[in-house]
Amino acid sequence: MNNFIEIKNLKKTFNISSNNQLLLFENLNLNISKNSTTSIIGPSGCGKSTLLNIVGLLDSSFHGEYFFDGILINNINKSKLNEIKNLKIGFVHQFFHLIPELSVMENIILPALIKKDKISDINNDADNLLKVFEIFDKKNMKPNKLSGGEQQRVAIARSLINKPSIILADEMTGNLDEKTSDEIIKFFLKFVANHQISLMYVTHNQKYADMADTKYELKNKNLVTK
Ligand SMILES: Nc1ncnc2c1ncn2[C@@H]1O[C@H](COP(=O)(O)OP(=O)(O)OP(=O)(O)O)[C@@H](O)[C@H]1O
Ligand SMILES: [Mg+2]
């Protein structure tokens, strides 16, 4: 199995007060292979977003070994960590997290500006994504003029601008109606399959969870394969 992400014996606690700790994961193991889709389902508060934050290198306070494409994350320096975080991983959130003052186009290209690529190349990539996601005509508008489904397509395009190896999506359809959710999830799953990108997504919807290659349930502080 081509293990792209491998987390072994993950233990995660949060300090709630000076003498009170919340134990979220214990001996949790996670494997994600290249170009695969993985779903995570589980009750509210079980730690799904916390797990995505750890996988996405936004939270490094945990015990256990984390290998990203063969690199042991625990030991690498800050600049290498930031390079992986910014260039190899994309994030999509439930509430889109678009910057309201920026246009659709500016929101999409923002993560690419840290790279040294030519701005004309970045603009071309963004134009292609705008076309693929059928929001090209909204390019110069502010996000609040768009529907929820359109805003999420902008957020998905933004997550793809740096051509990441993996996208982490936290309840990406949680704020959309069923028809729009169905369209977004089907379109996104097809897109990542066609572009050799891995996708790990959290959902409360069993129907969407079942669409992934690997289906996990977060239960009793651990992941159970379904
Ligand atoms: N920074 C933090 N400090 C202390 N506790 C935290 C922190 N972040 C999360 N928690 C707690 O950890 C638990 C898991 O939170 P998390 O957001 O990962 O759950 P979730 O499974 O994503 O829930 P939901 O389905 O409601 O989004 C919750 O009880 C939460 O209160
Ligand atoms: Mg959550």
Structural commentary:
This protein is of the alpha/beta class and 226 residues long. The chain has one domain (35-59, 76-225): Rossmann fold (3-Layer(aba) Sandwich), CATH 3.40.50. Helices cover 32% and strands 29% of the residues. The protein contains seven helices and ten strands. The strands form two sheets. A six-stranded mixed β-sheet has the order 6-7-8-3-9-10, with helices on both faces. It has a four-stranded antiparallel β-sheet with strand order 2-1-4-5, with no helix packed on it. A hairpin with a 2-residue loop joins strand 1 and strand 2. Helix 5 runs parallel beside helix 6 (178-194). The longest helix is centred in the last third of the chain and has 17 residues, at 178-194. It is globular. The model has no long low-confidence stretch (mean pLDDT 95). Adenosine-5'-triphosphate is lined by residues 14, 16, 22, 24, 42, 44-50.
Q: How many strand units?
A: 10
- Can you give the mean pLDDT? 95
Number of H/I helices: 7
- Terminal CA distance reads 18 Å
Strand order of the biggest β-sheet: 6-7-8-3-9-10
Instruction: Tell me what portion of residues adopts beta-strand conformation.
Output: 25-35%
Give the distinct bound molecules: adenosine-5'-triphosphate, magnesium ion
- Overall radius of gyration: 18 Å
- Give the proportion of residues in helices: 25-40%
What order do the helices and strands follow?
A: EEEHEEHEHHHEHEHEE
From the coordinates shown, what is the CATH architecture? 3-Layer(aba) Sandwich
